[in-house]
Amino acid sequence: MSHSMEYNKRLNRRHRADRRFKYYGMAAIAFALSFLAFFFVDIVGKSLPAFQQAYIQVPISYNAEVKDNYNKAITRNYRYLVSRSYLRSLPKKLAQHPELLGTTEDTWVLASYRVDQYLKGHDGHGLKSKYRPHVDEMFADDKIEFRFNTLFFTNGDSKLAETAGILAAAVGSILTLLITMAVAVPVGVMTAIYLEEFAADNRFSQLIEVNINNLAAIPSILYGLLGLAIFINMVGVPRSSALAGGLTLALMTLPVIIIATRAALRSIPDSIRDAAYGLGASNLQTVWHHVLPLAFPGILTGSIIGLAQAMGETAPLLIVGMMAYIPEAPSGIFDATTVLPAQIYTWSSESIRAFEERTAAGIIVLLTVLLSLNALAVWLRNRTQKTW
User: Fold this and answer.
1) How far is it, in rounded angstroms, from Cα 149 to Cα 152?
2) pLDDT (tens digit, 9 = 90+) per residue, 224-234?
3) Host domain of residue 342
4) N or C: which end of the chain has fewer CB within 10 A?
């Protein structure tokens, strides 16, 4: 009887331990999901104002003085409310359209970030108190309105918050990622195929495998130092260029792609190789016609995830000079450029509130791209996966 009672006690203790472990797991998942939800709600809430920009209707006078001083095109009462980027464009506009000389017209123009932030409820961010009643009156008279901020997607970086955009950083990210993909994917896949299917299992190959695993775990900033030493100082690749950044990220991504490719190759049963050998296929034919097609979904998934990780990196690109002020999109891989993570970091260090909104909006764009790449990896894996 006592033996049975002792057994029941032990069984109940194990059941209670199982339930506690289950609850701990559920609590951990709930905590992670709540943190993730808080992060997304906070980022989205901060980014939404950046997708709207204030425009103001003001009288513009195209007089002869505008050619030498663009401030003469507008009265002092409006000068503080209008973006300087628009005023700077007036001499060029007058040169292109000389028939405007001597005319005055009410024009919708880009408002300064001070007006924009004041109307968004950030009273303490730049607009002087003496201008606030005037702005309130114009807004009530429908002479100030909010429009979708297309400049955020069509402009590069700017010292003026109202005209700052992500175009240059987006183009730089695309060029950098294309170079990374062109170098890291073929080299990484071929290296993994050789090590897994052709190389002899000896001390040398084991040493290479250990080093590859170690390289995948070292801090990414060390790859920036390596890229600076090799590609910029030794080879002479232009600093701050997409070529320098792409080659540096390729070094960082190589171990990830090699490890993912080797794991995909190892998942193929040896029976498929033995069947190919039994039919007289060579080692190369076996790998090329049988093993590689079956491992392709895993290779593709690992490569895309590795490239997505590279796109979110900032530290190695800081070392090769891609933390730069780039107002214009690069026209080639040798031009100075920046990338989305670096642009986000630059905006986050600005003291003007409008840049904080653009920081959050840039994070949303970057997250969208990264999640899209991961979704593409899952879709391609499911689409190309084969069963046997």
Assistant:
1) 6
2) 888 889 999 98
3) 167-384
4) N
